[in-house]
Amino acid sequence: MTRQLWAPWRLEYIQTADEQDECLFCTAPAGPDEDMLVVHRGRKAFVLLNKFPYASGHLMVAPYRHVGDFAELEDEEALEIHRLAGQGIGALAQTYAPQGFNAGWNLGRIAGAGVVDHVHLHVVPRWAGDTNFMPVLADVKVLPEHLIESRRKLAKAWPRV
């Protein structure tokens, strides 16, 4: 029996993704961290919370440089993105104690990339039973904490290296 995961709260993003004039990953680093949900800034890449998350604490790691092809990442960018993802997993583990993580790249629109022209890595904390009836029946995603508060907690928990 095939099971389906429903994520109707993402419909708002999907319906407006093609209307975006600016690249989220290019504008986010230019704004205030709290407003743009930036959790951490590295030398070549940065981390921010997903405004339309699959789960609480859903992070995205992206290079500052606007690059849409994974193969065009510079070695330093690729290495820092993966280091930041690892640090993000540590900060999420310390802050929220998830039971697991999904981490990966969505490359190309057909693969689920919402922002096709700027590569980014997702880090999604997971808990047993972290889905419920609310999104399916009521088109409501229940996030137990405001995104700005999540950003503050994760920035505070970020490893100091």
Q: Estimate what percentage of residues fall within beta strands.
A: 15-25%
Bulk shape: globular
**N-to-C CA distance:** 47 Å
Strand order of the largest sheet: 1-2-3-5-4
Reading the helices and strands in chain order gives HHHEEEHEEHH
Q: Calculate Rg over CA atoms.
A: 15 Å
> What is the CATH architecture assignment?
2-Layer Sandwich
- In DSSP terms, counting alpha (H) and pi (I) runs of 4 or more, how many helices? 6
CATH fold type: HIT family, subunit A
Count of individual domains? 1
Biggest sheet descriptor: 5 strands, antiparallel
CATH class type? Alpha Beta
Structural class: alpha+beta
Average pLDDT level: 85
Instruction: Give me the count of strands.
Output: 5
Q: What do we call the CATH homologous superfamily?
A: HIT-like
Helix content estimate: 25-40%
Low-confidence stretches: none
Q: Would you write up a description of this structure?
A:
With 161 residues, the chain is an alpha+beta fold. The chain has a single domain (40-157), classed as HIT-like (HIT family, subunit A, 2-Layer Sandwich). 32% of the residues lie in helices and 16% in strands. A 5-stranded antiparallel sheet has the order 1-2-3-5-4. Strand 1 and strand 2 form a beta hairpin. Helix 4 (75-96) packs across helix 6. The longest helix is centred in the middle third of the chain and has 22 residues, at 75-96. The protein is globular, with a radius of gyration of 15 Å.
Which descriptors would you attach to this protein?
5 strands; five-stranded antiparallel β-sheet; HIT family, subunit A; 161 residues; alpha+beta; 16% strand
